[in-house]
Design a protein that fits this description.
By secondary structure, the protein is α/β, with parallel strands linked by helices. It has one domain: Vaccinia Virus protein VP39 (Rossmann fold). Helix content is 30%, strand content 22%. It has helices at residues 13-23, 36-42, 65-72, 85-94, 108-114, 139-144, 165-177, and strands at 53-57, 77-81, 99-101, 120-125, 147-158, 178-183, 194-202. The protein has a 7-stranded mixed sheet with strand order 3-2-1-4-5-7-6, with helices on both faces. Strand 2, helix 4 (85-94) and strand 3 (99-101) form a beta-alpha-beta unit. It is globular and about 40 Å long.
Length: 206
Amino acid sequence: MSTVTVPPAAASGAGAFLHEFLRDPLRTASFLPSSPALARAATAPVPHTGDPVVVELGAGTGALTGVIADRLGGRGHHMAVELNPRLAGLLQRAHPDVDVVVADAARLPDLLAERNIGAADVVVSGLPWAAYPARGPRLTDVIAGSLHPAGALTQFGYTCTRALPPARRLRNRLAEAFEEVVVGRSVLANLPPAFVLTARRPRQVP
């Protein structure tokens, strides 16, 4: 885990997102932050009551972070995991009350354990398809094992990539790790158009 360094104020969210996409397109899911419509669809499982643990993976500059923070209203624990330290710095400055961590999503069990959190209630993922490796330990299993039995994972992707092998592989792996996987309608208001996968009832639980 790394310390979050806050970049100069001149770096705006959209500009930083485009810059990081051009630097490393495989690790940055898109050249633009998610739209409000996509943010609402991806964060739908976040409960309006109680003290849930909500984890973001690939939080970027916080297009979904603000929606989650508003819905929680200070309740529970909100952790945002972002591998890119520049984007994480922007995120921490914009949302100082969110637990922002610079780390790989595969370390999710360790990150929860370090905070004495047994499991998450909701995981909201904005990771690119490339973040789910074809070989080695399955990130889908890691996430499923980090959720409560009634927990949910949302993963958004872009309509133009849903037929590609990485997307099909992810669908198959989600079906193996969760009892239910639902494909949401296309969010045409997003650029590019996107959709949300919602996986519930993890087969591997703590």
